[in-house]
């Protein structure tokens, strides 16, 4: 099947669907200029950090607890590389698809906040949001547009406790409420599962796609590269998210 035929087939599935689960990863934000990465981009691919350790150790929950200045060094680097970027056409396309199908959900690994920024409904940010800060002592939180001007590591203005981004660091548990929302979505039934811009390396990301394929639910992957779910999906679009979703929306509009 050619890419054009696959796009036609995917658009037909989207047109018929009322409940879509859309799972997104770092590739979705590539068109916004954000680096894709091991953890958060190619910033540290196959290299040790300046502290002589893998980024997974530097950005672990244990490091944040014991040496927060180390974790914050790389959090600020990551934030600086993302600063000034904006949501792209793929984020807007997904927000529209969900708005037109109120039973749908977006389950994202991304911490850039772009889905939230464009008003995506029924959103689960399973890894949190880089711009949401929370005090580890009193629990008070606040949203910040960026990390410019922050004391590193930041102290809570209320109690003086350590402040960190409300994100899942390496070695930390996923938020249970987010996993429960995903489980309830699947239990209530879905018409289509779409994997967009994710390498599908984690079980909770690949699992829903594999489950849907086994249940006979239509599945779609949008990703330029091969992933562990590529051979399992019904339709695969080897292209960038903004391109693929733009083509799908064109077909939906032409058929309406």
UniProtKB/TrEMBL annotation:
InterPro entries xrefs: DHS-like_NAD/FAD-binding_dom, NAD-dep_sirtuin_deacylases, Sirtuin, Sirtuin_cat_small_dom_sf, Ssirtuin_cat_dom
MF annotations from Gene Ontology: histone deacetylase activity, NAD-dependent; metal ion binding; NAD+ binding
EC identifiers of the protein: 2.3.1.286
Lineage top rank: taxon: Bacteria
Ranges for domain Deacetylase sirtuin-type: 1-255
Binding site residues for Zn(2+): 135, 138, 156, 159
SUPFAM superfamilies in alphabetical order: DHS-like NAD/FAD-binding domain
Active site positions: 127
Alphabetical keyword list: Metal-binding, NAD, Transferase, Zinc
PANTHER family per the UniProt record, alphabetical: NAD-DEPENDENT PROTEIN DEACYLASE, NAD-DEPENDENT PROTEIN DEACYLASE SIRTUIN-5, MITOCHONDRIAL-RELATED
Name listed for the protein in its UniProt record: protein acetyllysine N-acetyltransferase
Organism: Denitromonas iodatirespirans
